[in-house]
Amino acid sequence: MIKLIKPYITFHEVEEDFKRIFESGTFTKGEYVNKFLQEIKTYLGVDHAFLTTSATTALTMCLKSLGIGLGDEVIVSDFSFPATVNVVEDIGAMPIFADVDQDTFNMKSEELEKKITKKTKAVIFVDAFGNPSGISKIKGICEKHQIPLIEDAACAIGSSENGVKVGKIADLTCFSFHPRKLLTTGEGGVITTNKKEIAEIMSVKLNHGAIVRDGMADFINYGYNYRLSELQAAMGIKQLNKLESIVKSRNSIADEYKKRLHLLGFKRQNSLDNVIHNIQSLVFMVPEGMNRDHLITYLTENGIESTIGTYCLSNTTYYKNKYNSVQPIAKYLEKNTVTLPCYDNVDHKYISNIIEKYVRTLVED
Ligand SMILES: Cc1ncc(COP(=O)(O)O)c(C=O)c1O
Fold this sequence. Notes:
It is a single chain. This protein has 13 helices and 18 strands. The protein is an alpha+beta fold. It folds into two domains: 11-97 and 105-240, 3-Layer(aba) Sandwich (Aspartate Aminotransferase, domain 2), CATH 3.40.640.10; 244-364, Aspartate Aminotransferase, domain 1 (Alpha-Beta Complex). A seven-stranded mixed β-sheet has the order 1-10-9-6-5-2-4, with helices on both faces. The longest helix has 20 residues, at 243-262. The radius of gyration is 21 Å and the shape is globular. The structure holds pyridoxal-5'-phosphate. Residues 54-56, 80-81, 83-84, 126, 152, 154-155, 176, 178, 189 line the site of pyridoxal-5'-phosphate.
């Protein structure tokens, strides 16, 4: 079976570090966590970073640190993994679904403008599959209306727009280190920000509500523990060092696929000219009239693992029943997109050949 994902880390790469951690007995809040945080800040060029257990906990922390809750509205990109909206629902705020652009799969600026009200307390823009296209424009709108912008960059480590890395564009940015991402620590995430006031709140909240004075903890607030361990940080450091080459390699594989599949009527997710997209997932829109689910089945039968693009959040059972606000483009993309394997040495020629064979069977039918 050709797998959909292959992590960019081997046991061999971390063996020495793991040994060192076990010998030291320091499994948390040690040198690896500090180093990983420092390297993330340097790589992204940001002032503050907070490691978390996932992008989901990272997003939750952002909303909590902004003081968002009951009666507030948060506008979210509608084409995403449900975590994007679940965090809004979880804190008692009302999610407002903004439809996405059919080419980039990201929140449309006109949609955002239309949906801002007096109750809007934050915007969560999703870099769909790691593509940050349009984030700067969305940031301009948020600034005009003085609404905090949270970037759900779960998939977007290594991406940039206008030469600015994702991580320092929005007010708050959340990354994921889940195994489907370019950089994995098993589970994990990080929040980055250049906003000093929010960082101060966050550092207390993420330390059980404590500040440390004269070596003693003073619990000035309530808070949480969403820490990453030393072992996980050791894994992260290794991959951060090779991120740029991973992004280049994924882009060249994606271009090879595009050359073949565009001739067959498939359309790859588009990025704007000034964007570096890390291709966390390689997603194509299937040709008009093609049954995407049949294609996935056919690929499986031919030893190729693939999957859907992602979800139309407003069309998932819970949110559809509760808010009845289905967004048409996100709904179309949910039904008509497919994710293909994309990593070093993947046999993209074989995969393209199988897809071509599938298209031929449809023509013959
Ligand atoms: C856009 C988006 N946001 C949030 C998440 C949640 O990330 P995590 O699994 O790290 O909580 C995901 C996971 O795939 C995602 O794709």
